[in-house]
Amino acid sequence: MKIIRSKAFRLIVILICIAIIIYESIGIYREKQEYNIAGTEYEELVEDSISVANKAEMPDGATYPPLQIDYAQLKGINSDFVAWIYMPCFDLSYPVVHEKEIDEYIKKTFEGKYNSSGCLFTDVLSTTDFTGMHDIIFGHNMRNGAMFGKFKQLIQEGGREIIDSNPYVYIYTENAVYKYRVFAYYVTNVGSDSYSVVTSEQEYNDFIKYIASNNLYEKPADLNLDEFPSILTLSTCSGRSGSGKRLVIHTAKVDGWALNN
Fold first, then answer.
1. pLDDT digit string, tens, across residues 118-153
2. 220: which of 60, 161, 232, 255 lies 20 to 30 Å off by Cα?
3. pLDDT score at 237
4. What does the alpha-carbon distance between residue 143 and residue 261 come to, in Å, rounded to a whole number?
5. Hey, CA dihedral for 211, 213, 217, 222, is it positive or negative?
6. Which residue has the higher pLDDT, 102 or 34?
7. Across-strand partners of 180?
8. In this structure, how many other beta carbons lie within 10 angstroms of the beta carbon of residue 29?
């Protein structure tokens, strides 16, 4: 009788293991399918809405990468569209929307389709024209490296060299292009002071002190924060799902050009 029970128990365990494997396999397959769908969507957006700008038509003295953004077309697809972000060191190029409700775009693509890949978005408290003292862009840490998925490389060996290769982030809005310099990155927790609302010079100074106490990247000596340049934070998940850990990159606005529309 004990032998029969032992065999039955082993069989149950085996069946449970097989069921778990099948369940996980289906989940991985669905995730891969969603990644592919989202990837195709954003590739088509780049192809249809982004082109190389005529340098003769760029503002005098402009040194930003000559991208021409079809703002009207993108706004026509999604009225929440506010900017295009380009980060050369990660070959990162995506549209950015402004959420009207918290986590509105966590599982919704730029075209409004349900997808776990979501979309890059600014939070409800950020400015829509990137002129606030502290604005934030959120994006998923995708396993395939899409969205903000490559940011995990920063906390691996050689992470600093990635930023040093080209430490700038460019934000293309309808009326201006802004250039930001990376000056900090680190792992933090959900709801930490990394996401501070900054509306005064005192809050700005407190925010910079908090960043300095956590920073894994040496702030450039020639970057002056005394005149309170706008801070743009890029945020994504870090570590295992549900851990509450976040990887943030802080950048400071160092230049900007008004566009003649």
1. 899 999 999 999 999 999 999 999 888 889 999 999
2. 60
3. 93
4. 38
5. positive
6. 102
7. 169, 253
8. 10
Of the candidates 173, 146, 139, the residue with the CA atom closest to the CA atom of residue 67 = 173
Both tokens of residue 155?
A: 């906390």
pTM: 0.85
**β-bridge mates for residue 85, sequence order:** 94, 171
Domains and CATH numbers, the chain: 50-258 (2.40.260.10)
Element (H, E) at 235: strand 231-237
Beta carbons of 188 and 194 less than 8 angstroms apart: yes
Residue 249 CA to residue 130 CA, distance in Å, equals 16
- CB distance 150 to 163 below 8 Å: no
Nearest Cα neighbor of 88 from 194, 183, 169 is 169
Mean pLDDT of 177-192: 96
Distance CA 167, CA 181 (A): 6
